[in-house]
UniProtKB/TrEMBL annotation:
It holds the Pfam family SH3_4. The keyword Membrane applies. The chain crosses the membrane at residues 20-38. InterPro entries: DUF1058. Keywords: Membrane, Transmembrane, Transmembrane helix. This is SH3-like domain-containing protein. It comes from the Bacteria.
Length: 186
């Protein structure tokens, strides 16, 4: 009877030890899974350091604008004006949902876009917009820019943007540009 009681005690100790190791293994596995990135665990979380919405420009000379985020979706438009500003307002994997100044929307492959900022001069206006020598309303006018002209954005202080159009550069009131948000500083 002594050996049976001792044998039962050894069996109980083995079971307790086994349960302890199983619990420890579950704990370690859970900790590893919680600390792993979402893509490693099979979850599809969109994490980006860049805010939405944001402006970019078209890098490619030709880019398909699709109805959904992937090459399996129909092409709705073909964009052929490199450098035009586009607003990204949604993203999925390497695809970006964009809109242009006319309100045309669709999905475009992310590598076809550039972080270089451009703007469109007041596409909603009928009158020309002043390109000024300095960032003040009383500064001399260098040129008059027609609506829908594309300019390169150099910097913006929230009220005025330094822009370039070919060899000509100057300042445009930020409210007269599509491609930069009101009050945005670049």
């Amino acid at each position: 009877m002594n050996s049976v009681a001792q044998f039962g005690f050894v069996t109980v100790r083995r079971q307790v030890r086994r349960q302890f190791y199983v619990a420890l293994a579950r704990f370690v596995l859970t900790a590893v899974l919680l600390s792993a990135p979402a893509t490693t665990t099979g979850l599809r979380a969109e994490v980006s350091a860049l805010p939405l919405p944001r402006f970019v420009s078209l890098k490619a000379s030709s880019a398909n604008l699709r109805v959904g985020p992937g090459i399996g979706y129909d092409i709705e438009w073909v964009m052929t004006r490199p450098g035009i500003p586009l607003e990204i307002y949604q993203q999925y994997d390497n695809w970006r949902r964009v809109r242009d100044w006319e309100g045309t929307t669709g999905w475009i492959y992310g590598p076809l876009l550039s972080g270089r900022r451009t703007g469109i001069v007041a596409p909603w206006m009928k009158d020309n917009v002043a390109l000024r020598k300095k960032a003040t309303v009383d500064s001399p006018v260098i040129a008059w820019l027609e609506p829908r002209v594309r300019v390169k954005l150099m910097r913006c202080d929230g009220k005025w943007c330094a822009v370039a159009l070919g060899a000509t550069s100057g300042f445009v009131n930020q409210t007269h540009l599509w491609g930069v948000y009101p009050g945005e500083v670049l």
